[in-house]
Amino acid sequence: MEDRAQPTQERLQEALALLRAHIEERYGVPVRILDVPDPYSGDLNGEEIHLDYEEDPDVMVFNLVHLFGHTVQWNLLGQASEIGSKGPGAYTDADLEEVVNYEREACRYGQQILHEAGIHDLDGWLSAFAASDEAYLLHYYRTGEKLPPQSFWKTDHPLLNPLKIPRFHPRKFKLRADGVVI
Description:
By secondary structure, this protein is mainly alpha-helical. Helix content is 47%, strand content 6%. The protein starts with 8 loop residues before the first helix and ends in a 39-residue tail after the last helix.
């Protein structure tokens, strides 16, 4: 099993710069580092990605690749996804399965963007972060309780398989902060 330890701050800063440049140049999706409204640590609107400048580099890198994955999904679906828009406790088992598939697919696109940017040493870390994020979201959607995200850190799961990024044309939808998803 690949090492899933926390990368150094320097490596994450380097990865963030490489990913930002690659996403902006290859896909035409601007990455803005700014003050993202609470409670979010990143946001997207289908046309650009916002990262909160107050976040640690690990959260910024995860958010960038994950939100890029959602950007791909939103543009392929032709509309901002309504997955994750119900209130806590209103999710059926089928809804939660849909959430899991949606989140994993976004992270698989994230894994691909890492590789496209020449980053191959963060696969295990991204897989662990993605599994932890999924566990956090499922807990929140079931209970409405927001626990510290790091309390869901997982390392006992398979690595993500990269998912080829299809051609898409970025279009503007609502920001998550405008009520689309948590």
